[in-house]
Amino acid sequence: MYLTAGKRLFVNPQFPLLLNGSEVVPDFVALDPAAKQVWLVEVSWAQEVSKLLKKCRNYVIHEALIQEQLGVACPPDWKIGLWLFLKGETAAVVSAKMTVLGNMELRIETLERAGAVWEWSKVKLHSGEPKVFVTEPV
User: Fold this and answer.
1) pTM, two decimal places
2) Measured CA angle at 94 (ends 88, 96), to 5 deg
3) Which stretches within 62-117 are classed as H helix?
4) Consecutive 10-residue runs of the chain (138 residues): their mean pLDDT?
5) CA torsion sign, 106 to 74 to 16 to 23?
């Protein structure tokens, strides 16, 4: 488990959950004790969203089971949410299709804003070193 730089979130990568006999592994599970919140975090740069949507809907359906499996890491008064990091063009599609979330909060961040440049028109070759890229904010 890692403590993030902001000293607010505890983050555990590849945390396995058993849902109806199948192992499901979120990219990260993030705990925010100050907000009494557990985030199931998924990161994807894929344009095809059907697998991601299926995985997220599975989390929503099994929210109580997930809370039980997290045990002491998720007391009963804590909330569970989905935190997705997606390409900008994909984020709008997923947001429109994720309408039924039960008690779960949905948070979507774009990878472009989080730090990865996907718009190659914004990437410039460094003049002195042709294999090194210099990026400008999108």
Assistant:
1) 0.78
2) 110
3) 63-70, 88-97, 111-114
4) 68 89 93 92 91 92 90 84 91 84 86 67 53 44
5) negative
